[in-house]
Amino acid sequence: MCFVINLSQPLEPQGPFDIIVHKLSDVIVEAEHDDRSQQLLVNFKKYTSAHPSTVILDPLPAMTQLLDRFVSYRIMNWHICSPPYLEVPSESDLSSIHRAVKEHNLSFPLLCKTRVAHGSLSHEMSLIFGESCLADVRPPCILQSFVNHGAVLHKVFVVGDKHFCVERPSLKNFPAGPCDRKTIFFNSQQVSKPESSSDLNALDEKMPCLPSPRSEALAALVKELRAQLGMALFGVDVIVNINTHTMTVIDLNIFPGYEGVPQFFSSLLDHIRALLDSGAGAADPQGPSSCEPPSASSI
């Protein structure tokens, strides 16, 4: 039997639950400055702590790490090919940003992304082309060396031990190295929508099609990330470097929209059945993460 949980009401009378599938990412982010959201999380944690046999998909601590790009980029930096990056904390001033960019050998252009990796503001990004425009950086944020990838983004959607790869538009190629071009501010969601038509994702020149990431490489990547994250529902943004043809991870996404994945609901139900049949938690079967519950509602 499947139904929606009302988090504003006591959970005990609504249960018991075999499994809770949640997407309380908004509540987790809002809880930093909103008393009501804080209380919802407290109530949810209290219930799940009192019912450890309830399977949580996905565990709250595992989810929380993907809401902070500082944390998720450190995960990406372990054994996964990803572009050089720099964490710019809140207290950074312009001179310290200049110095850090040089010390970390970041190459222009640079992608600037918000620290918070969820919500509408997380899609607001900028492309910075030279040192003179580092004044446009708004900490806290991530600065990441831009990798030319032929305006093609491969969005990998993970559902338990299955994954699906969907091709989307992405930023076009830009000349490597610093230049006097003004900073470009953009919304990544608008650039990478399935039917997006933008000056930012239109290639200026004809170029050969890049190879898609190999299925075996994607499978190995997903297996590695599931083990590291302790999660079953997440997304991975992958590009292919136009110079080296190397598969490169540029972002991790918490419980994505699964747009373009027609098998999502059947795959999710298969994963839930497998979890209930095995009595395992929501994390990777090779290494379930210890846990508290994640947030939000259903089943």
From TrEMBL:
EC number assigned by the record: 2.7.1.134
Cofactors, names only: Mg(2+)
Entries under InterPro entries matching the protein: Inositol_tetrakis-P_1-kinase, InsP(3)kin_ATP-grasp, ITPK1_N
Amino acids binding Mg(2+) 1: D237, D251
Binding site for Mg(2+) 2: D251, N253
GO CC terms: cytoplasm
Domain of life: Eukaryota
Cofactor stoichiometry and binding remark: Binds 2 magnesium ions per subunit.
UniProt keyword Magnesium present: yes
Domain Inositol-tetrakisphosphate 1-kinase N-terminal positions: 5-62
SUPFAM superfamilies in the record: Glutathione synthetase ATP-binding domain-like
Keyword tags: ATP-binding, Kinase, Magnesium, Metal-binding, Nucleotide-binding, Transferase
Binding-site residues for 1D-myo-inositol 1,3,4-trisphosphate, renumbered to this chain: K23, H123, K155, N253, G257
Enzyme class: transferase
Signal sequence residues: none
Family label: Belongs to the ITPK1 family.
Protein role: Kinase that can phosphorylate various inositol polyphosphate such as Ins(3,4,5,6)P4 or Ins(1,3,4)P3.
Record protein name field: Inositol-tetrakisphosphate 1-kinase
Species name: Neogobius melanostomus
